[in-house]
Amino acid sequence: MKNKILSIQHLKKSYHDKKSEIKALEDITFDVYDKEFISIVGPSGCGKSTILSILSMLEKKSGGMFHLKENITIGYMLQQDSLFFWRTILDNCLIGLEVTKKLNDESKQYVLDLLKTYGLYEFKDKYPASLSGGMRQRVG
Fold first, then answer.
1. Which of 59, 44, 57 is nearest to 13 (CA)?
2. pTM of the model
3. Per-domain residue ranges of the chain
4. Which pick of 48, 73, 84, 95 has the fewest CB atoms within 10 Å?
5. How far apart are CA 28 and CA 23, in angstroms?
């Protein structure tokens, strides 16, 4: 028997302003079972991130329900990166090492190698505004 770890039933989310209501999600229902790998795919604005935000308790649902099995953790990378616009790509990548006082020649070289691996090395001296959204996500 399959072990259900997540059940979503008739999930809804609406956003309101003074003049209108925008339905971000309407009647979303699915289950996820142990050891399954799923993807949520759809066009921009269809509610993929909204589902994840609700499951992560970052947003409140407007209707429906979901149940997570105990000891299950949900995490995901937010769409909005947290890069500092005044720091170069390399400097943004090094900030964690700087703050934890672990920046040295070896750790800096490791970061430079990662930038090469992810196709970002040639942009290391650029600023976040010059990168595409996907590139900014990789830097983040």
1. 59
2. 0.58
3. 4-68, 89-139
4. 73
5. 12
Question: Tell me, what's the pLDDT at 79?
Answer: 67
Please write the tens of the pLDDT for every residue from 81-118.
789 999 999 999 999 999 999 999 999 999 999 999 99
β-bridge mates for residue 33, sequence order: 4
CA dist 97 → 15, 32, 43, 83, 101 (Å): 39, 37, 36, 15, 6
Half-sphere CA count of 61, side-chain side, radius 13 A: 20
Residue 71 to residue 134: CA distance in whole angstroms:
31
Closest residue by Cα to residue 10 from 80, 50, 65? 65
**Radius of gyration of the chain measured on its C-alpha atoms:** 20
H helices within 25-104, ranges in order?
A: 48-55, 89-99
The CATH homologous superfamily of the domain defined by 4-68: P-loop containing nucleotide triphosphate hydrolases (3.40.50.300)
- Would you tell me how many other CB atoms lie within 10 Å of the CB of residue 78? 13
